[in-house]
């Protein structure tokens, strides 16, 4: 019996915190982090600063101060501000994941928080070849500010069915913090496995 064709995508389930915005992208994307609901009187970017934390226990870095990008930071050439003072990051890397704060003036009362989460999917080990190996383990990693709740990263098939345990052509290997593993079996050419990466 031919195995059911698998299309692997994500279902990410996180509980948002009031006043926070969560964005999901893949490595290499260009992203725009919005500074929502900036009052008209403060739309001049000279009043806007962007702060960054990689982790909950990391030191705060000032990416943009009073409308000017901090040129002393690694990757500063990839940063710029839009007309409405949103932070633009070109060709995002793993180091860009984390929490960003858009601050108006010097007062934290009206801070806008944006969480940049970065997704990667790759064979594990990296040199595994899904075209020739009988089976390959796919590793999904989520880079984010803080840890990932248990079962917050899920694999689903083309019908939206969550892939748990072991089934026809796959084995779910579980989630550890922000890494989830799924082993899939190589399928015949007329019923070849398809892997669709999410677009955010």
Describe this structure in words.
With 200 residues, the protein is mainly beta. It contains no helices and 16 strands. Strands 2, 4, 5, 6, 9, 10, 11, 13, 14 and 15 form a ten-stranded mixed β-sheet that branches. Strands 12-1-16 form a three-stranded mixed β-sheet, with no helix packed on it.
Brief write-up:
The chain is mostly beta strands and 200 residues long. It is 0% helix and 43% strand.
Helical region count?
A: 0
Regarding quaternary structure, how should these chains be classified?
A: single chain
Task: List segments where confidence is low: pLDDT < 50 over at least 5 consecutive residues.
Answer: 1-9, 11-18, 188-200
Task: State the share of residues found in helices, binned by percent.
Answer: under 10%
Large-scale geometry: elongated
* Rg from alpha-carbon coordinates: 20 Å
Give the CA-CA distance, first to last residue: 36 Å
Largest β sheet strand count, sense and barrel closure: 10 strands, mixed
Alpha-beta classification: mainly beta
Report the β-strand fraction as a percent range.
35-45%
Tally of extended strands? 16
Order of helices and strands: EEEEEEEEEEEEEEEE
Round the mean pLDDT to the nearest integer and report it. Answer: 80
